[in-house]
């Protein structure tokens, strides 16, 4: 059995359309039972749930804080040992304030090697007394980006805390109520620590399948599975839970244990296993379905698998009311329902049905689909119960005594990963883009309706569904509007210039993070790129898989640090850099992992490019003073993009063209006082000024002097700090402004 689930759907936010559809199916199932008492009970439970949901939302709204300005606070937190995730010197976890009972997301950094060792080996619940800065959780600041604020709000959390000092830490005292949970979290922490010591790929698989944790290197290690949509084999679907429970049942039967005893033991052990396996939505569903089936058998209830699914769905809603809004939960419950309802279909039709059921969620979450996913499912899914899971269990169990066997298991899993990575490089990836939510709902409803038809009538309806996918694909890839979009990449720059019908895709800078040296005792962490969550994610959501012209304004990391991610994820046809930068060796290492050869073209004033080059005038090292300044007209407005150019460069531009003006000015150097001279602003007379800067950045950007200059010249400014992504969408010579956090600005 295979489930074509999105690779990253556990972390991508879903739309309530799929959850509403699941709720409707559940109610339809209850109605078909034709038992009035069950129907009344269901309506009462839903009414109680709705009232609870409304009251909780009111409470969360009262607790809400702004996400821009932090406030100082002191907290006493109860922290479970398996909640703390370490990445280098940084850590983060979810905890509960002992005094107020309020949940918080918490982040901080270890100060010493001893503190790091203590966190790495902690296996008991602890109480932390801390001081720090608290604020609201940052929502999605770019269009089509994962919304962390919504995700945590569904779990009753609306605040985040940055620890600045730990004033005390001690072992927590367990009560009668908390003792069982503490015991489960203790053993999960021990299991995570044991899995962390495993070699290579075995560590990634063991962490994902046993405690439901994520290894730091899992993104790189499981890249083939990710691109082929096979990560449902991990905790998202609960498939591994069902297999493990089935294996336990098989073992008990063959050991000739009395069924009454081992069924009772399994029922009592399911809550502990739920904690041990990571408490995810897929684990919750699988544990409750098996528990309900065992209970129904013991009490002689006529409880079908579908009934168990419906009851598990209600339990899931009670535990996590945000289940309806989260893509991971929607996929786990939705595709397990598909397996139930399609159990009597032929193998071919079951595969078609599961693919069509998973596809709307896949496209809504990852925006792409690989045509080899069906082949990969056919090859890998049968291997999961007979190879992947047994090899993972064997390598984990024998490591303390036979590490050579564990290394062999790791090597076998690594070869599987390499094979899938190679398969994912073959042609067939479809950069579809993000469909409208109502389109995805219609696809899902159409798929369910399709399987109510007799098999002989289905072929033409399958073709009708496929035609609808093609039509939607065309509307996404050939939009009649163009846009100029300033991404919110934190303390950095990245700007998209997309022509109508996607005739030309240009990008100015990629964004990136400035690196800072770490002490020797800090363990290395895999390289990650913010662009994968911000600008690359947005391009994929628009069905864009290439960049015609990628301008790099200069060599600072906050402008070009994420270049490797673009070269790996997209086809970049041409890199345009300020004259002189092409000869600098300092940034050439960013090109080494490019998927395809990249043409590098140095430009200066007078060079031919899709944008008018206003600076530099001669070749020189690509410092701020030699930054590219580019100009172009889009949708009836003239735009000037200044990179990090300083006031001396601005003066050169004015001297070369005393009539220089623009409608929209992207301020140089993130609004620093080193740029945007009063004379420059007065000469240009822009209608709008755009500032790209990070929240609470250490440089104090934008500078107060720059903001004063703008006010004195009556130039309204819009900043990514407060508005998030800023975009101008146009058709012909008319358009409108839109920001992610504040909506429409001006038409």
What's the quick description here?
Keywords: Cell membrane, Membrane, Transmembrane, Transmembrane helix. By secondary structure, the chain is α/β, with parallel strands linked by helices.
Portion in helices: 40-55%
CATH architectural designation of the domain at 482-515 and 526-744:
4-Layer Sandwich
The major beta sheet can be summarized as: 9 strands, mixed
Mean pLDDT: 86
Q: For the terminal residues, how far apart are their CA atoms?
A: 52 Å
- CATH level 3 topology of the domain at 482-515 and 526-744: Metallo-beta-lactamase, Chain A
Domain Metallo-beta-lactamase: 491-695
Keywords: Cell membrane, Membrane, Transmembrane, Transmembrane helix
Protein name: DNA internalization-related competence protein ComEC/Rec2
Membrane topology: Multi-pass membrane protein
